[in-house]
């Protein structure tokens, strides 16, 4: 009997946390780059997180709208790295 592992493919998923906080590390789903949350703020009826690429202080920060579903929060297009063990 020969066991064949499933095909290795890239897929996108959103990982939720209870709260987006300064100091958290998130990984961009499309290219795997790590980003550090440097600021979280509310503007009108939305919450935004400011992310800076890990290890690159010269690149401009990225502003991402926080997605909230019930008590969970997530950053669309990013995965929370501490939960996946990839930090």
Topology (SSEs and partners):
Elements: E1 25-28, E2 34-43, E3 46-53, E4 62-65, E5 67-69, E6 72-74, E7 78-80, H1 81-84
Antiparallel strand pairs: 1-2, 1-7, 2-3, 3-4, 5-6
What can you see in these coordinates?
- By secondary structure, the protein is mainly beta.
- It is 5% helix and 40% strand.
- The protein has a five-stranded antiparallel β-sheet.
- The relative contact order is 0.28.
Shape: globular
Please compute the radius of gyration using only Cα atoms.
15 Å
Q: What pattern of helices and strands is seen along the backbone?
A: EEEEEEEH
In the sheet with the most strands, the strands line up as 4-3-2-1-7
Low-confidence stretches: 7-14
Described by strand count, sense and barrel closure, the largest sheet is: 5 strands, antiparallel
Rounded average pLDDT: 82
As a percent range, the share of helical residues equals: under 10%
End-to-end C-alpha gap: 37 Å
Structural class by sheet pairing and helices: mainly beta
**In DSSP terms, counting alpha (H) and pi (I) runs of 4 or more, how many helices?**
1
Strand content: 35-45%
Compute the number of strand runs. Answer: 7
Question: Summed up, what is this model?
Answer:
The chain is mainly β. The protein has one helix at 81-84; strands at 25-28, 34-43, 46-53, 62-65, 67-69, 72-74, 78-80.
Please name the defining characteristics of this protein.
single chain; about 90 residues; mainly beta; five-stranded antiparallel β-sheet; two-stranded antiparallel sheet; 7 strands
